[in-house]
Specification:
By secondary structure, this protein is of the alpha/beta class. It has one domain (about 15-275): TIM Barrel (Alpha-Beta Barrel). Helix content is about 35%, strand content about 15%. The protein has an eight-stranded parallel beta sheet with strand order 2-3-4-5-6-7-8-9. Strand 5, helix 4 (about 125-135) and strand 6 (about 140) form a beta-alpha-beta unit. Helix 6 (about 185-190) runs parallel beside helix 8. The protein is globular. The structure holds (4S)-2,6-dioxohexahydropyrimidine-4-carboxylic acid and zinc ion. Zinc ion binds near residues 17 and 256.
């Protein structure tokens, strides 16, 4: 591959962290993802949350109905369950048998619809032990929630006070540190000692590769650049970009595309979440190109995720071309609209 290609062919990628919501809006957001990705890990933070195998199966069939309406035949949702203080070891084993891909840990109060999340990991010990025993991955929203911890420090404090003790207690538990945002998280995952086992990985969003916290305040408050964990300083963005483009298989693609209607973002207390699904692959290509590492995109986007989850890699190919794509100011979202990431601007790369 030359230093500045204008076209790249990739094995079709998957999105290892995605919110598609439910009801009216699901069809609109699912269309954007299914155009680019073969599979996606579907986050369970609905209202009420997806806490049991039965709820996940019902959610999966609503997703399948929407895919049918869209005429999509090749997209596979990978279902997850929401861990609570009451999740039993039996539910974990049942989930394994039912083909559930993972459990998601939301510390209570950390983000959108996380009120039913875990108040203290000590309540989950039996469930976590069962996950370790059956090889069920735990996906973590890695932020502490105490009001006295500065919002920019919540991820780093989570590593020291929750993640490292958990890994000491359950060293064979497969953990994905989701949407990492700091140098500390990137280095923690890079340097974790696993005895050669596939026990830790991290997903990285496009917004955390492309923007730092100034983007939330550029000339005024920018609610569409607000997500959780919040964007951090430039040194952290640089460390994340370094990790993503390093070819290290512990880092892979997870957009955390998190749709909220325009009115819910542009509000006195606006919701957290960036809608990146519209041209997520273009955003990642732009980030990788910015450091001359487009040749590392395929591993990050298409290989390391399925390898970690012990799923087959996709065989279909996709092509990205360097044709600037204008991003609309708004897109339909059920009866409302949504403002996509980079609305009104262009993205250099688009999917053929
Ligand atoms: O910004 C975010 N939005 N972060 C999350 O962790 C949840 C997500 C959502 O569901 O809206
Ligand atoms: Zn998320």
């Amino acid at each position: 591959m030359s230093n500045s290609p204008t076209k790249i062919e990739l094995t079709q990628p998957d999105d290892w962290h995605l919110h598609i919501r439910d009801g009216e809006v699901m069809k609109d957001v699912l269309a954007d993802t299914a155009r680019q990705f073969a599979r996606a890990i579907i986050m369970p933070n609905l209202k009420p949350p997806v806490t049991t195998v039965d709820l996940a199966k019902a959610y999966q069939s609503r997703i399948e109905s929407n895919l049918k309406l869209l005429g999509v035949t090749e997209f596979m949702p990978l279902m997850t369950l929401y861990l609570t203080d009451n999740t039993s070891a039996d539910e974990v084993r049942k989930a394994k048998d039912a083909g559930i891909a993972a459990f998601k840990l939301y510390p209570a109060g950390a983000t959108t619809n996380s009120d039913a999340g875990v108040s203290d990991l000590k309540h989950c010990h039996a469930a976590l032990e069962a996950m370790q025993a059956v090889g069920m991955p735990l996906l973590v929203h890695g932020e502490v929630t105490h009001a006295d911890i500065d919002i920019f420090d919540r991820e780093a404090v989570f590593i020291d006070t929750i993640l490292e003790p958990l890994r000491k207690k359950l060293p064979e538990l497969k953990i994905v540190f989701e949407h990492i945002t700091t140098k500390q998280a990137a280095h923690y995952v890079r340097d974790a000692v696993t005895g050669g086992k596939n026990t830790i990985a991290a997903t990285i969003t496009p917004q955390h590769l492309l923007m730092n916290r100034n983007a939330i305040f550029a000339g005024g408050i920018r609610p569409h650049n607000y997500c959780l964990p919040v964007l951090k300083r430039e040194e952290h963005r640089v460390a994340l970009l370094q990790a993503a483009t390093s070819g290290n298989s512990r880092f892979f693609l997870g957009t955390d595309s998190a749709p909220h209607a325009k009115g819910a973002k542009e509000a006195a207390c606006g919701c957290a979440g960036c809608y990146s699904a519209f041209n997520a692959l273009g955003l990642y290509a732009e980030a990788f190109e910015s450091v001359g590492k487009l040749d590392k995109l395929e591993g990050f986007a298409s290989f390391f995720g399925p390898d970690f989850y012990s799923l087959p890699r996709n065989s279909k190919k996709i092509t990205l071309v360097k044709h600037a794509q204008s991003i609309p100011m708004e897109l339909p979202l059920g009866d409302a609209t949504i403002v996509p990431l980079r609305a009104g601007e262009t993205i250099a790369w688009s999917l053929v």
